[in-house]
UniProtKB/TrEMBL annotation:
One of its GO terms (biological process) is electron transport chain. Residues 104-133, 134-163 form the 4Fe-4S ferredoxin-type domain. The gene is rnfB. GO terms for molecular function: 4 iron, 4 sulfur cluster binding; electron transfer activity; metal ion binding. Keywords: 4Fe-4S, Cell inner membrane, Cell membrane, Electron transport, Iron, Iron-sulfur, Membrane, Metal-binding, Repeat, Translocase, Transport. This is Ion-translocating oxidoreductase complex subunit B. [4Fe-4S] cluster 2 binds at residues 113, 116, 119, 153. Its main location: membrane. The keyword Iron-sulfur applies. The complex is composed of six subunits: RnfA, RnfB, RnfC, RnfD, RnfE and RnfG. It comes from Sulfurirhabdus autotrophica. Residues 1-23 are annotated as: Hydrophobic.
Amino acid sequence: MLTALLVMTGLALLLGAVLGYASIKFKVEGDPLVEKIDAILPQTQCGQCGFPGCKPYAEAIAREEAEINQCPPGGDEGVRKLAELLGKDFKPLNAEHGTPKPKSVAIIDEPTCIGCTLCIQACPVDAILGAPKQMHTILAAECTGCELCVAPCPVDCISMIEIQPDISTWKWQYPIYQIKSV
């Protein structure tokens, strides 16, 4: 029995070492340009640009298969940053893909919700919690305001509420930590 344990431990260590070496030796590097483009995009994953998310859109821009002005949530500011990064001329936002809107968050009228789960399936960032035939709710901190959950709702219990800018939501990249006085 002890011999079997030692053999299994030895094999596990050997295979772990081989896998560790292989992960370093055969590491696939991502395109740094794609990462820079993706960092500029708003990460709403809304699909308004014609791609299933921000990363595929960034990849298409890097391959020059998509224009830099297809992202309504990014607005003109996003287009300017992309143009600067890529050394291209600024183009106004393409209206075919939508217009910029104020930042908003989805809200579910919970008593009206029938628990169909269609909104959960539509949400690209998993910001909706619920179970079949049970009330659903939105995690406001996770919601990107993409509006993809609104259309599939059969009882129209989802609405978009504009986020009013205040000290906690105004262009901050990180949450504000309140300091309590002693």
